[in-house]
Write a structure and sequence with these properties.
alpha+beta; 7-stranded mixed β-sheet; 5-stranded antiparallel β-sheet; 29 helices; globular; binds S-adenosylmethionine; SAM-dependent_MTases_sf; Cytoplasmic protein; DUF1156
C-alpha cells in the first residue's frame, strides 16, 4: 500500500548534535532572549523548536524519488538540508533574514507553496509558536493558564499588529525607519521611565540613601538592598519578650579579599541584639558567619540570646500565631569601587516599615508543601510573601500601568493614530488598542519586579547579588531575605525590569499573524490543515497553575480592563490542568489516572483534527530522578507514551534533545540522560490489527537492529541510545491496534519499553561477535574487573574459551600479566609511539583506546584525526566498540568517568571523520597537516 503522505525529514534523520549544541549554548544567552520577557517554567530551547519545526515540514529526499532517485542522491540532499538546519539553530542567526529566508523557502517548497498553520495547544512560554512565526508560518498557541496566554499574546499576537510602526511618545527622535517591533519597544521604554518618575514622586521618600562609613570613602550612597532576618520570640521563658533572628547566614561577601559579614552583638542584660559589619576575618570567623543562627538542616536554629534550641515546631507555631517578625541586619549600597556593606540604622528600619499598602494579594497558596513551604510558617496568602514596602512599591507601579495606558492613548491620538475605540482583545489597532498593548509590556515589568521584590529573594554572598524568587520551580521558605531597592541601578531596579521586555521586543521578527487564546487542550478546535508541535506538561514535574498564581495576582489588577475575560476569574484554573499532583487528586493513583485520561483526550483531539500530510511532534521532558537505570522505565514517561498510543498515534521517531553538552553530561553527575525527547507521531492506520506478544518480539528482532545500526551511523551519542531506540521500538508497538499478552490483555507501554530495552542490550551484546578474539576477551575482562587486577586462572579460562591465550592478549598490548594476576592497561600506560600500520597484532581494542587517549588529551585535534585516518578500515568496528564500552561503563560498572570518555568520542565522531577526510597523507611523521 502506498503511503498517503510524504515522509518528512524528521521521520528519517536530523543533525542532533548541532541542534543540541546550539540548545546548550542558548542557555547562557540572556539579553534579548525571548524567555526574559516573562518568567515561565521549563521552556524548550528555541533552537530545538526551530529545528524540529523545519524538519517536520520539509520533505525527506526519499519522498521525492523523481529528484533523488538513488540512496546516494538522497543522502547528499539530506546533507544539504542538515547544512540549513546547522545554520538555522545558531543563536546569532535567529534574526538573520538571509538564513531564515533560506529555511522558509525550503518549507514553502515542501508545502506546495501554501504554508500550513502550526498550533501548540500547551504553549506555555510560547517557544514553539514564536519559532513557527519566525519561520514564516501562521502561528497559533493556546494554554489553560492566563499568565502563559499573556506571554503568548505578547510574543506572537500583539507584535504583528503594530509591526514597523513608529513610536508615538512625545519628543520622538527623527528616525527614518522602525522595523518590526522597534517602535513598540521604544514606547515601552519611554512609558516605563515615565512610570518610574511618577513612582519616585509618590514613594521615593521611603528609599533613603545611606551614609557610607569612612572606610568606603564617606558620603551618601544609593541602597541596593536591605537585608532582613526573620525573627521569632526566644524559646527561653526568661527572654520570651525578645524577638531573636533566625538567619541561615550572616555572610555578605565571600569573595577572596572582599570578605564581609554581619556580627550580631547580644546584650543579655538590656535584652537587645544589634548588628555590626565586619570585614576580612579569619577562616573560623567566616565559617561561623556562614552558619548564621542555624543549628542544623531545615528549620533548626539557635537562640543567640539564650543559646537554647529553636525547633521547627517553635517556628511553625510562632509563624501561625502571627509572632514572626523581621529585623534589619545589614544594608548593601552602591559603593565607589563595588558593594558597600553598612550596619542597619533605626531610620532605615523605621522607614521600611512606615509605608502601609492599600492592597495585597489575598489568594491563598496551595496546601502543597512539595512546592510551597511558606504556608507552614503562617505565610498563607501570596500577599504574605511581600514586605509592606514591597507591597507599596508593587501597588504603586501597578496603579501606574493604568495611568500610563491612559497617557499612551492620549499621546497616540496626538501622534495621529486612529481614535477607533475597538479594544485590543476585539481586534483593534487604533490609539486605544495601542495603549492597551503598551500596557501589557509595562505589566510584564511589574511581573519582573515581583520576582525580585518578594521576601523569598536572598543574598548570594559569593556573587554579591540578589537571587530572584523563582530560582527553582517552587516557593521555598527563606529565613534571611533581601529587599531590593526598586529605584537603584542594581538587580531588580525598575529600569531593568522594563529593559528585559524592551530588548526582547527589539529582537522579535513578527511576520505572519499570530493568535494565542486561553483554552483547555482537551477540547481545542484547530484550524484546518493544522500541524501540531507541542510540549505538554510532564506528569508531576511542575505545578504551573499553583506557581503562576504568584504572577497572576499582580497581573490581574493591571490587565483586567484589557482582557476582561482572561482575568475575570479569581485565580488560575486548576481543575483541568494536566498535572499529576497527588495533593490535588487525592492520591498518587488517582493523579496518574487523571493525567493519563486527560492527556489521552488532549492528544486524541490533536490526532483527530491535525493535517494528515505532516507528522506531529510532541516533546516529553525527563526529570533525571525519575529515570531508572535502564533509561526508560519511569511512571511519568510510560504513562505519557501510553496516552500518546491510546490517542491513536503511531510513534515513528524519538529524538533525544539536551541542553547540556554531550561530553559534560556524565561528568556533571546527574545529567546523564537527555533533557527531553521529541516524539514524532503519525496517525495510526485505520486498518491496524492486533498481534501477539511473540509476534511483537519477532518484529522487534527484525526491525530494531537495522534501526539501531542506522542511529549509530548517525553518531547518536551512546548515552542517548536507549531513548533513541525507543523511537523505532515504539514504531513497531504503536503500528498495531494492540499487542496482546497470553491472557489476551493488551500489553502496556511499560512492558513494551522493557522489551525494547532488552533488544537494545542484545544488539550491543551481539555486535561483539564482530570483534577480534583479543578484544572480546578484553570486553569481558573489563566488564568483570574494570581496570583492577584479576586472577590469572580466570583470565586463562576466558582466553581459552575464545581460542586464544592470555599471552596473546598481552602480546597485543592490552593487558599486563604478572605474579598470577592480570590487569587491563589503562590508557596512560599505552605506548605513545604506537603506530597501527606497524602493529602486527592489531586489535580493535587498541585502536579505540589510543583514539580515546588522544581525544581525551586534545579533543578534535590533528593527531586524533590522523589516527582515525590511519585506522580507517576498522573505524566502524571501533565505533561499535565505543558503544559497547559506554554501555558497560555507564550501566554495568557505574563508572561515569570512563563512560564519558566513550560518549564524548562519539559526540565528536562526525567532526573527527571530517577532519580525517581532510588529511591527504598520513605517511611520515605526525607533522602531516590538514588541507583546510
Ligand atoms: C511544558 S509547558 C510548555 C512550555 C513551552 N513549550 C515553553 O517552551 O515555554 C506545558 C504547559 O501546559 C499547560 N497546561 C497544563 N494543562 C493544560 C490543559 N489542560 N490545557 C492547556 N494547557 C495546559 C501549562 O500551563 C504549561 O504552560
Amino acid at each position: 500500500m502506498t503511503q498517503p503522505y510524504k515522509k518528512k525529514l524528521i521521520e528519517v534523520a536530523i543533525p542532533l548534535e548541532a541542534i543540541n549544541a546550539a540548545s546548550a549554548r542558548e542557555k547562557s544567552i540572556r539579553h534579548g532572549h525571548p524567555s526574559t520577557l516573562h518568567l515561565w517554567w521549563a521552556r524548550r530551547p528555541l533552537a530545538a523548536c526551530r529545528a524540529v519545526l523545519f524538519a517536520q515540514l520539509v520533505d525527506d529526499p526519499s519522498s521525492n524519488p523523481e529528484n533523488f532517485p538513488t540512496p546516494e542522491a538522497q543522502e547528499a540532499e539530506r546533507k544539504r538540508l542538515f547544512g540549513i538546519i546547522e545554520e538555522l539553530v545558531k543563536w546569532e542567526n535567529s534574526t538573520n533574514e538571509e538564513v531564515l529566508e533560506r529555511a522558509r523557502a525550503e518549507i514553502r517548497k515542501s508545502c506546495g507553496g501554501e504554508l500550513p498553520p502550526v498550533y501548540d495547544p500547551f504553549s506555555g512560554g510560547g517557544s514553539i509558536p514564536l519559532e513557527a512565526q519566525r519561520l514564516g508560518l501562521p502561528a497559533y498557541g493556546s494554554d489553560l493558564n492566563p499568565v502563559a496566554v499573556m506571554i503568548g499574546k505578547a510574543m506572537i499576537e500583539i507584535p504583528p499588529k503594530f509591526k514597523d510602526k513608529e513610536p508615538i511618545h512625545p519628543g520622538v527622535k527623527d528616525r527614518q525607519f522602525y522595523r518590526n517591533s522597534e517602535g513598540l519597544a521604544e514606547d515601552v521604554k519611554y512609558y516605563g521611565e515615565w512610570m518610574r518618575e511618577k513612582a519616585w514622586e509618590r514613594i521615593g521618600h521611603l528609599y533613603p540613601e545611606v551614609d557610607l562609613p569612612q572606610e568606603y570613602g564617606g558620603g551618601k550612597a544609593t541602597v541596593i538592598a536591605w537585608i532582613w532576618a526573620r525573627t521569632v520570640p526566644s524559646p527561653d521563658p526568661a527572654f520570651a519578650d525578645v524577638q531573636v533572628p533566625i538567619a541561615s547566614s550572616f555572610l555578605l561577601s565571600s569573595k577572596a579579599g572582599k570578605e564581609a559579614w554581619i556580627e550580631p552583638i547580644v546584650d543579655r542584660k538590656a535584652k537587645t541584639i544589634t548588628y555590626r559589619i565586619r570585614k576580612g576575618g579569619t577562616k573560623a570567623e567566616l565559617e561561623v558567619a556562614k552558619e548564621g543562627t542555624k543549628a542544623g538542616r531545615g528549620a533548626n536554629f539557635r537562640c543567640i540570646m539564650s543559646d537554647t534550641a529553636i525547633t521547627p515546631k517553635h517556628i511553625t507555631s510562632a509563624g501561625k500565631a502571627g509572632h514572626m517578625g523581621q529585623t534589619l541586619i545589614a544594608i548593601v549600597a552602591e559603593g565607589k569601587g563595588g558593594r558597600a556593606y553598612v550596619a542597619p540604622t533605626d531610620r532605615h528600619d523605621t522607614l521600611a516599615k512606615s509605608g502601609k499598602p492599600a492592597w495585597k494579594p489575598e489568594q491563598r497558596q496551595p496546601n502543597n508543601p512539595r512546592w510551597f513551604s511558606p504556608p507552614a510558617y503562617g505565610m498563607e496568602t501570596f500577599g504574605d510573601l511581600f514586605t509592606d514596602r514591597q507591597l507599596l512599591a508593587l501597588n504603586t507601579f501597578s496603579d501606574l500601568v493604568h495611568e500610563a495606558r491612559a497617557q499612551v492613548e492620549v499621546d497616540a491620538r496626538a501622534a495621529g493614530l486612529s481614535s477607533d475605540l475597538t479594544s485590543l482583545c476585539d481586534g483593534g489597532s487604533g490609539a486605544k488598542a495601542y495603549a492597551e498593548a503598551v500596557s501589557v509590556y509595562l505589566t510584564f515589568g511589574v511581573s519582573k519586579a515581583t520576582d525580585y521584590h518578594s521576601s523569598i529573594t536572598t543574598w548570594h554572598s559569593s556573587r554579591e547579588i540578589i537571587r530572584n524568587t523563582f530560582g527553582r520551580q517552587a516557593l521555598p521558605m527563606t529565613w534571611d531575605f533581601t529587599e531590593a531597592n526598586i529605584f537603584s541601578a542594581s538587580t531588580g531596579n525598575w529600569r531593568n525590569c522594563i529593559e528585559w521586555g524592551v530588548k526582547t521586543l527589539d529582537a522579535l521578527m513578527p511576520r505572519n499573524t499570530g493568535l494565542e487564546i486561553q483554552h483547555d487542550a482537551q477540547s481545542v478546535t484547530y484550524p484546518e490543515r493544522t500541524v501540531i508541535s507541542s510540549d505538554p506538561p510532564y506528569y508531576d514535574n511542575i505545578g504551573y497553575a499553583d506557581l503562576s498564581d504568584f504572577f497572576f495576582s499582580w497581573m490581574k489588577p493591571a490587565l483586567r480592563p484589557v482582557y476582561p475575560e482572561i482575568f475575570g476569574v479569581l485565580a488560575t484554573p486548576k481543575a483541568e490542568e494536566l498535572v499529576a499532583t497527588p495533593y490535588r487528586h487525592g492520591g498518587k493513583d488517582a493523579a496518574e489516572a487523571f493525567f493519563l485520561d486527560g492527556m489521552s483526550r488532549a492528544i486524541a483531539n490533536m490526532a483527530a483534527q491535525s493535517s494528515d500530510l505532516f507528522p506531529a511532534t510532541i516533546y516529553y521532558a525527563f526529570k533525571q530522578s525519575e529515570v531508572a537505570q535502564d533509561g526508560i522505565s519511569s511512571t511519568g514517561w510510560a504513562t505519557f507514551l501510553q496516552a500518546v498510543v491510546e490517542a491513536g498515534y503511531a510513534v515513528v521517531g524519538t529524538w533525544p534533545m539536551r541542553t547540556e553538552m554531550a561530553n559534560r553530561m556524565i561528568a556533571s553527575g546527574t545529567n546523564a540522560l537527555a533533557n527531553s525527547v521529541v516524539l514524532v507521531c503519525r496517525k495510526k492506520e485505520a486498518t491496524a490489527e492486533a498481534i501477539t506478544r511473540a509476534e511483537f518480539v519477532r518484529a522487534l528482532k527484525r526491525e530494531l537492529p537495522p534501526a539501531i545500526a542506522e542511529l549509530q551511523v548517525a553518531n547518536i551519542a551512546p548515552a542517548d541510545m536507549p531513548q533513541s531506540a525507543i523511537g523505532p521500538g515504539m514504531g513497531v508497538f504503536s503500528r498495531y491496534k494492540a499487542v496482546l499478552e497470553s491472557d489476551d490483555s493488551p500489553m502496556s507501554v511499560k512492558t513494551a519499553l522493557q522489551l525494547i530495552n532488552r533488544e537494545l542490550d542484545e544488539y550491543l551484546g551481539g555486535i561483539q561477535g564482530e570483534f577480534d578474539a583479543d578484544t572480546r576477551f578484553a570486553i569481558t575482562w573489563f566488564e568483570q574487573n574494570g581496570n583492577g587486577k584479576g586472577d590469572y586462572g580466570v583470565a586463562d579460562n576466558l582466553a581459552r574459551a575464545r581460542g586464544i591465550s592470555v599471552e596473546s592478549v598481552k602480546h597485543a598490548g592490552i593487558v599486563e600479566s604478572a605474579a598470577g594476576k592480570v590487569r587491563i592497561l589503562i590508557r596512560d600506560e599505552l605506548d605513545e609511539d604506537w603506530e597501527p600500520e606497524s602493529d602486527s597484532h592489531l586489535t580493535v581494542w587498541e585502536c579505540l583506546q589510543h583514539l580515546v587517549r588522544l581525544h581525551e588529551k586534545d579533543g578534535i585535534s590533528h593527531d586524533t584525526a590522523v589516527l582515525l585516518k590511519k585506522i580507517n578500515a576498522q573505524a566502524e568496528t571501533v565505533k561499535d566498540l565505543a558503544y559497547c564500552l559506554y554501555d558497560i561503563s555507564a550501566n554495568k560498572r557505574k563508572d561515569a568517568k570512563e563512560a564519558t570518555a566513550y560518549n564524548a568520542l562519539i559526540a565528536d565522531w562526525a567532526e573527527l571523520t571530517k577532519a580525517a577526510a581532510a588529511i591527504h597523507d598520513t605517511s611520515g611523521d605526525r607533522q602531516t597537516r590538514m588541507d583546510i
